[in-house]
Here is the input.
Amino acid sequence: MDKEHTIKNIQQLIYYNGADNNLAKTELFSGVDLYYLNFGSNPVHLRHEKIDSIIQINYCKAGQLRWNMKSGSRIYLNYGDYSLHSMQACTQSLMEFPQGFYKGLTICIDLAKLKTSPLKLFGDIFDVNQLCQKFCESNKITSLAGNNKTETIFEGFYNLPDKNTLNYARLKFYELLILLQNTKLSPQALLPEYTAGNEAVIREIHSLLQQNISKRLTIKELALRHHLNTTTLKTAFKNIYGVSIGAYAKEQRLRYAAKLLDETNLSISEITKNCGYKSQSKFTSAFKALFKILPSEYRKRKNSGH
Here is the structure.
């Protein structure tokens, strides 16, 4: 199957898979296309031929992307994360959006086209094949956690000026290539891949937190119970749920407190204890930080019907 035809089929699939889906394309150079993506909650099956001559760079601006690969591995992209791979690696994959939406961008680089129209920077040819060898060898997907430098570049694609828009986008693309060329693939920078098995352990911990809102289950306690080290647990939970385990547990306790304020006559002191807080002042401060209102005012507002 012709690769151009395949890509058009993928574009049509994205459009027709859900009413909330949106895709906007900009050609940066011959062989380099920039796509702005907005997905709703419906998963997208990418059924296409293996195309090893096209590299994709993906960046998550908002929401979350869970990419289920044909091999059985699962990759999560959360805010600021990015990935690189060839279109050989993602064949027969499934894209899901656990938070109900996904917003990001994808840059497709056609190595075959660049052979006849190579990229030049200040008169010198930029060898994109080096990036392919660095990030995409052995049919792998390289996913990385974002940092201040990558965030500045990717966000630049969303803040293009009204004049000289295309040239500005081209400069951001070159800036991205140079940054990737100098990126060191350290274990700390790489995002882990998951299987259904080790993902299930994290989901069990997630359920345990939901079932024990009134208790302060520590990360160390949860890690020991499930035979994990604390670093693995914290990293996996944040990747899979898009938020740290501490922040998630705290928000769940505060939302439970709001429910008690709304549906019971328990005193604020009693609610403080029921939600695992030893200090009412700390509970009040945390509640106001989340809901922008004091617990007492929240109850009055609910009781008054406002």
